[in-house]
Write a structure and sequence with these properties.
alpha/beta, Aspartate Aminotransferase, domain 2, Aspartate Aminotransferase, domain 1, 2 domains, seven-stranded mixed sheet, five-stranded mixed sheet, globular, cystathionine gamma-lyase activity
Length: 371
């Protein structure tokens, strides 16, 4: 069955009375039923996979999947897979929030964190040679420069060194990349973003190539109280029904915008452009296009700020994946200690007409002094 069909009907879901919308069950306490064992407290989650987790697993081609209360809680749960005393190799030019979260969390857990450019396989191999690495943490693509790692080769290096490979595929989503099919052990998603697609849910997910780690991750989720709440799960299922259509539209618009910006002489970061440094790798690994996010450079922070301030259709906000298109000068968002270029503008493309977004950017660029 095609993913489009699976999601449109939510795997032929029924509410038990003929309704075609999954029921919303909010109870946190359940009375024991005759002849059945007592139900646990809702913080523990379901005994087996929920409908949402089954669908998430099928999206990623995974053995199993787990839903969490946020992308950050899913990320922290993944650290439970790393034995004490080992190290985590993290993409150096990746999502800044996770860099901070993981720096604090690894220190508390007795793990060490090292940063490396995941597109530099020699550097990765050199760090793995220590024999201490338990987890290689890549992003596909890296946010906000959208660099593209070679997942099959990263997987080979990690496994040869006795480490797991986790790939944060939030920005690409399973519509464009299925990391487990390229050798990854874990795929991470901030389901808050494109999987939900409506800007009204906090959720995260881990998809696993093998189900053996599921009990440990479930226990971590119970212990930390990070089970996804029923209403969030219900909203995420609703959002997934239109996932493929939304990704097709947003990704096609992003590709058009990237080409339009490049034609105006701006430096554009987008894996679908022929001059992207890993374009050949992107073509070999992406499916269905190259995603709905891109960045471009303006030459100075002041010029970038002027563009961000002048747009009318784009919304000035920091996130990804909702119906509205978002714009930000990324270094301003990240603040002190940012590794992001000061003049870089990040765009997350939504569902507006491409012509309106192009016109909006054109109008903003026209406000800049010439020369």
């Amino acid at each position: 069955m095609k993913i489009d069909t699976l999601l449109a009907g939510l795997d032929a879901v029924s509410d038990g009375a003929g309704g075609l919308v999954p029921p919303l069950r909010l109870a946190v306490t359940h009375a024991a039923q005759p002849g059945a064992p007592a139900s646990g407290y809702a913080r523990s989650g379901a005994e087996g996979e929920t409908l949402l987790e089954t669908i998430l697993a099928r999206l990623d081609g995974a053995a199993t999947a787990l839903a969490f209360a946020s992308g950050a809680s899913a990320a922290l749960a993944a650290l439970a897979l790393v034995p004490p005393g080992r190290e985590v190799l993290l993409e150096a030019e990746g999502y800044y929030e996770f860099r901070g979260i993981l720096a604090r969390a690894t220190a508390l857990r007795g793990l060490s964190l090292r940063l490396v450019d995941m597109t530099d396989l020699e550097a990765v191999a050199g760090m793995l040679s220590s024999g201490r690495t338990g987890l290689v943490w890549a992003e596909f693509p890296g946010n906000p420069l959208w660099q593209v790692p070679d997942l099959p080769r990263l997987s080979g290096l990690a496994h040869q060194a006795g480490a797991l490979l986790l790939v944060d595929a939030t920005a690409a989503t399973p519509h464009h990349i299925r990391p487990l099919s390229l050798g990854a052990d874990v795929a991470l998603h901030s389901a808050t973003k494109f999987l939900n697609g409506h800007g009204d849910v906090l959720a995260g997910a881990l998809a696993l190539a093998e189900s053996a780690a599921r009990p440990a991750l479930m226990q971590h989720r119970t212990d930390t109280g990070t089970t996804l709440a029923p209403f969030g799960e219900w909203l995420l299922l609703r959002g997934l029904r239109t996932f493929v259509l939304r990704m097709e539209r947003a990704s096609a618009t992003a590709a058009r915008l990237a080409g339009w910006l490049a034609d105006r002489g701006l430096q554009v970061h987008y894996p679908g452009l022929p001059d992207h440094p890993q374009h050949a790798l992107a073509c070999a690994q992406y499916t269905n296009g190259f995603g709905p996010v891109l960045s471009f450079r303006m030459g100075s922070a002041a010029r970038a700020d002027a563009v961000v301030a002048a747009v009318q259709v784009f919304r000035r906000a920091t996130s990804l994946g909702s119906t509205e298109s978002l714009i930000e000068r990324r270094a301003e968002t990240e603040g002190a200690g940012t590794r992001c270029p000061e003049d870089l503008i990040r765009l997350s493309i939504g569902l507006e007409a491409a012509e309106d977004l192009i016109g909006d950017l054109q109008g903003a660029l026209d406000t800049l002094p010439k020369g």
